[in-house]
Amino acid sequence: MTINQTSSINGFFAILSGLFIVVFSMDPIPAIKYVLIISLFGSCIFSLLTTYKVQGNRIGFMDYWMTAAVSVVYALALVFHVRSLQEFITTSAGFIFLYGLTQIIFAIQALKLKERAYLNIMAIKGIGGLLCLITSALIFGTSILGSEYSLLFIGILQIIIGNSFIDISKYYE
Protein backbone atom coordinates (compact mmCIF):
# COMPACT_ATOMS: atom_id res chain seq x y z
CA MET A 1 0.00 0.00 0.00
CA THR A 2 1.14 3.54 -0.69
CA ILE A 3 1.26 6.42 1.77
CA ASN A 4 -1.73 7.95 0.04
CA GLN A 5 -3.75 4.73 0.39
CA THR A 6 -3.00 4.14 4.08
CA SER A 7 -3.66 7.78 4.95
CA SER A 8 -6.87 7.79 2.90
CA ILE A 9 -8.13 4.65 4.66
CA ASN A 10 -7.35 6.39 7.94
CA GLY A 11 -9.43 9.35 6.74
CA PHE A 12 -12.32 7.11 5.70
CA PHE A 13 -12.41 5.58 9.20
CA ALA A 14 -12.79 9.08 10.66
CA ILE A 15 -15.38 10.15 8.08
CA LEU A 16 -17.53 7.04 8.55
CA SER A 17 -17.50 7.32 12.33
CA GLY A 18 -18.30 11.03 12.03
CA LEU A 19 -21.25 10.32 9.75
CA PHE A 20 -22.51 7.66 12.18
CA ILE A 21 -22.28 10.09 15.09
CA VAL A 22 -24.04 12.87 13.13
CA VAL A 23 -26.86 10.53 12.06
CA PHE A 24 -27.49 9.35 15.63
CA SER A 25 -26.69 12.62 17.44
CA MET A 26 -30.33 13.64 17.86
CA ASP A 27 -31.27 10.20 19.19
CA PRO A 28 -28.06 8.89 20.77
CA ILE A 29 -27.47 5.18 20.97
CA PRO A 30 -24.74 3.33 22.92
CA ALA A 31 -23.28 2.05 19.64
CA ILE A 32 -21.82 5.52 18.99
CA LYS A 33 -19.11 4.79 21.54
CA TYR A 34 -18.25 1.42 20.02
CA VAL A 35 -18.21 2.70 16.44
CA LEU A 36 -15.81 5.44 17.50
CA ILE A 37 -13.60 2.94 19.39
CA ILE A 38 -13.36 0.69 16.32
CA SER A 39 -12.65 3.72 14.14
CA LEU A 40 -9.92 4.95 16.48
CA PHE A 41 -8.18 1.57 16.64
CA GLY A 42 -8.43 1.36 12.84
CA SER A 43 -7.04 4.87 12.59
CA CYS A 44 -4.17 3.91 14.88
CA ILE A 45 -3.30 0.87 12.77
CA PHE A 46 -3.30 2.83 9.51
CA SER A 47 -1.44 5.74 11.10
CA LEU A 48 1.25 3.30 12.22
CA LEU A 49 1.37 1.77 8.72
CA THR A 50 1.76 5.25 7.27
CA THR A 51 4.42 6.05 9.88
CA TYR A 52 6.37 3.04 8.68
CA LYS A 53 6.07 4.20 5.06
CA VAL A 54 7.25 7.78 5.72
CA GLN A 55 10.26 6.92 7.89
CA GLY A 56 12.59 8.99 5.69
CA ASN A 57 10.36 12.03 6.11
CA ARG A 58 10.70 13.52 9.63
CA ILE A 59 7.56 15.64 9.35
CA GLY A 60 5.41 12.80 8.03
CA PHE A 61 6.78 10.40 10.63
CA MET A 62 6.03 12.79 13.49
CA ASP A 63 2.57 13.60 12.10
CA TYR A 64 1.36 10.04 11.77
CA TRP A 65 3.06 8.88 14.97
CA MET A 66 1.27 11.60 16.99
CA THR A 67 -2.03 10.69 15.32
CA ALA A 68 -1.54 7.01 16.20
CA ALA A 69 -0.65 7.84 19.80
CA VAL A 70 -3.62 10.15 20.36
CA SER A 71 -5.98 7.67 18.64
CA VAL A 72 -4.98 4.71 20.79
CA VAL A 73 -5.06 6.68 24.05
CA TYR A 74 -8.49 8.13 23.13
CA ALA A 75 -9.82 4.65 22.25
CA LEU A 76 -8.50 3.16 25.49
CA ALA A 77 -10.04 6.00 27.48
CA LEU A 78 -13.40 5.29 25.82
CA VAL A 79 -13.07 1.56 26.55
CA PHE A 80 -12.01 1.79 30.20
CA HIS A 81 -13.32 5.13 31.44
CA VAL A 82 -16.57 6.02 29.69
CA ARG A 83 -19.76 4.62 31.21
CA SER A 84 -22.32 7.28 30.28
CA LEU A 85 -23.15 9.61 27.43
CA GLN A 86 -21.96 12.62 29.44
CA GLU A 87 -18.61 10.92 30.13
CA PHE A 88 -18.36 10.14 26.40
CA ILE A 89 -18.91 13.79 25.53
CA THR A 90 -16.49 15.09 28.18
CA THR A 91 -13.79 12.57 27.26
CA SER A 92 -14.25 13.29 23.55
CA ALA A 93 -14.00 17.05 24.11
CA GLY A 94 -10.82 16.55 26.12
CA PHE A 95 -9.20 14.41 23.45
CA ILE A 96 -10.32 16.74 20.69
CA PHE A 97 -8.56 19.49 22.64
CA LEU A 98 -5.45 17.27 22.96
CA TYR A 99 -5.53 16.43 19.26
CA GLY A 100 -5.83 20.13 18.43
CA LEU A 101 -2.76 20.88 20.56
CA THR A 102 -0.76 18.13 18.84
CA GLN A 103 -1.72 19.53 15.45
CA ILE A 104 -0.61 23.04 16.44
CA ILE A 105 2.67 21.66 17.84
CA PHE A 106 3.13 19.75 14.60
CA ALA A 107 2.50 22.90 12.54
CA ILE A 108 5.05 24.85 14.59
CA GLN A 109 7.62 22.08 14.12
CA ALA A 110 6.98 22.06 10.36
CA LEU A 111 7.34 25.85 10.30
CA LYS A 112 10.74 25.60 12.00
CA LEU A 113 12.05 23.53 9.09
CA LYS A 114 11.42 26.49 6.78
CA GLU A 115 10.93 24.20 3.80
CA ARG A 116 8.40 25.44 1.29
CA ALA A 117 7.10 21.92 0.68
CA TYR A 118 5.73 21.79 4.22
CA LEU A 119 3.88 25.13 4.20
CA ASN A 120 0.65 23.55 2.92
CA ILE A 121 0.87 20.83 5.57
CA MET A 122 1.59 23.41 8.25
CA ALA A 123 -1.40 25.50 7.21
CA ILE A 124 -3.80 22.54 7.11
CA LYS A 125 -2.58 21.18 10.45
CA GLY A 126 -2.44 24.59 12.17
CA ILE A 127 -5.93 25.59 11.05
CA GLY A 128 -7.21 22.09 11.89
CA GLY A 129 -5.66 22.34 15.36
CA LEU A 130 -7.32 25.69 16.01
CA LEU A 131 -10.62 24.27 14.77
CA CYS A 132 -10.25 21.36 17.21
CA LEU A 133 -9.56 23.73 20.12
CA ILE A 134 -12.59 25.85 19.27
CA THR A 135 -14.79 22.79 18.75
CA SER A 136 -13.75 21.28 22.08
CA ALA A 137 -14.89 24.49 23.80
CA LEU A 138 -18.18 24.33 21.86
CA ILE A 139 -18.66 20.69 22.90
CA PHE A 140 -18.14 21.54 26.57
CA GLY A 141 -20.48 24.53 26.25
CA THR A 142 -23.25 22.75 24.38
CA SER A 143 -23.15 19.72 26.68
CA ILE A 144 -25.03 21.88 29.18
CA LEU A 145 -27.82 22.39 26.63
CA GLY A 146 -28.04 18.72 25.73
CA SER A 147 -25.99 15.89 24.38
CA GLU A 148 -27.45 16.13 20.88
CA TYR A 149 -25.55 19.29 19.95
CA SER A 150 -22.30 18.08 21.48
CA LEU A 151 -22.54 14.82 19.55
CA LEU A 152 -23.29 16.76 16.38
CA PHE A 153 -20.09 18.81 16.85
CA ILE A 154 -18.08 15.65 17.58
CA GLY A 155 -19.40 13.98 14.42
CA ILE A 156 -18.82 16.99 12.18
CA LEU A 157 -15.29 17.38 13.49
CA GLN A 158 -14.59 13.67 12.83
CA ILE A 159 -15.65 14.21 9.21
CA ILE A 160 -13.39 17.26 8.90
CA ILE A 161 -10.45 15.39 10.45
CA GLY A 162 -11.01 12.50 8.05
CA ASN A 163 -10.97 14.86 5.08
CA SER A 164 -7.74 16.43 6.34
CA PHE A 165 -6.08 12.97 6.45
CA ILE A 166 -7.01 12.49 2.81
CA ASP A 167 -5.92 16.01 1.81
CA ILE A 168 -2.58 15.79 3.64
CA SER A 169 -1.60 12.41 2.21
CA LYS A 170 -0.73 13.82 -1.21
CA TYR A 171 1.99 16.01 0.31
CA TYR A 172 3.93 13.04 1.66
CA GLU A 173 4.13 11.05 -1.59
From TrEMBL:
Claim: Transmembrane is one of the keywords in the record: yes
Protein species of origin: Ekhidna lutea
Protein keywords: Membrane, Transmembrane, Transmembrane helix
Record's protein name: Acid-resistance membrane protein
Keyword Transcription regulation: no
Lineage: Bacteria, Pseudomonadati, Bacteroidota, Cytophagia, Cytophagales
Signal peptide: none
Membrane-crossing segments per the record: 7-26, 32-52, 64-82, 88-111, 123-145, 151-168
